[in-house]
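User: Show me a protein chain along with its predicted structure.
Assistant: Here is one chain, sequence first, then structure tokens.
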Amino acid sequence: MVNLSRVDLNLLVVLDTILNEGGVSRAAARLNLTQPTISHALARLREQFDDPLFVRQGRTLAPTPLARSLREPLAAALHSLGGVLSTGRRFDPVQTGATFTVAMRDPMELIVLPALARQLAAAPQVELRSVQLRRRGIEAALADGSLDAAIDMALPFSDRVRRHKVVAADFVVVARAGHPRLRRKPTLASYLEQQHLMVTSRRRGPAFEDLALGQLGVHRRVRLRCRSYAAAFRIVAESDFVLTMPRRYAELLNKAYGNRILRMPMAMPALDLYLYWHEAMDGDGGNRWLRTALLDALNKGSVDVR
């Protein structure tokens, strides 16, 4: 076991910065230190780990296998330490500068960001970034601090990721006004006969509603897949395609269209959505402010989003 009292934790910050910036000069600029200071710190790190850590390749420094293996655990450790040091610290969005990064799917932006923008008007020192990450990368990003929070469906994260259920989405069928084969509430048979449009970021595979249909022993034919609900809504308005989607989001989009919003012809389980953050940030004043702002935005908006 390493005696931490003999370890200069500033060296670990330097190592993390060199790994992220890809060179001594950039690390020096990022930390507002001189290049000789960073070079001296790197020499001590090499002695500490008994490894060169970085080797010259042309004009760049390439990390050794040991340095690459340290990247994620080092980032997570520094992130956790930062959370410990900031526990209980008061966060004042008027006076305290902060940049928060939140992962959410594209449809959620339309619901959440307008409400958050109104809150940012009263928090002049706060900046917010909305990003979309692959779901398998969210926990690592929460752990290393590159992500402050995420809003998504139920995901199999470890116990180190905290979660708060924010909504359960119910589904509807959207069809254009005057659709020739859906003049009344659709039956299961008439629903299955339609030309279906699916919104998804995946090239193949079923949607949430297809899993419910599979439990009934039936399936629908999806003839068109696209990535945007806005595009899908226009397609529905100008064709005989029908779209299955979360109700409240459909109601929001339909303000610009005259589509019909119909009940699903079969019972479906609700799709639960959650707010996620890392346990290291439980007591962080800034992260607490962010979580409160997100929950307030979610409660004020229509948030049934796939």
